[in-house]
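Onboarding guide, step 5: your first structure request.
Type a short instruction followed by the sequence, for example:

Predict the 3D structure of this protein.
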Amino acid sequence: MIPDIDTQLASAIKSISDNVQPAVDPKNQLAQEQLYLALATLNLVRQNLPLAHSYARQDMKDHIAMAEELTSAAGSSDALSTAVTHAEKLLNDPEQGSQVLLAGARSLREVIGVFLMDNAENTALDSIVIKHSKRGIDKGRSWTKGMGFEPDPKAVADLADIL
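The system replies with structure tokens like these:
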């Protein structure tokens, strides 16, 4: 087995396209649709893999920035401070891979969510969340642009440009 992930993905995509796809009953619309989605997902992973670590790092940075801005506007929270400290430690550790960084960003998002619920009466926080959410939405749309669901893919920035 070749340890190059890109080559492995290309091989799997080719094998499925050349051997599995022709064998799937064309009258079975569900199977055809699922095959299309599976191939599109594999192609999407292959296309975005070189940017996966940068994406995860940027996601972490974006959530840290939002957390810091929220605490500046609403006051500090022990839980949020602890979560930011942990996130910064992960971000600054060169040994951490993209999956660990994404999980760390997800954990920080959860703490941010609790912080927002605890401060729900503070409507000034809404604009901070909206401002920071736009970047996350743009990154997500760019990441999944290759799936074919965007009405105007040219209107969505390329992931490398966003990062």
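Each response can be followed by summary notes, for example: DSSP finds seven helices and no strands in the chain.
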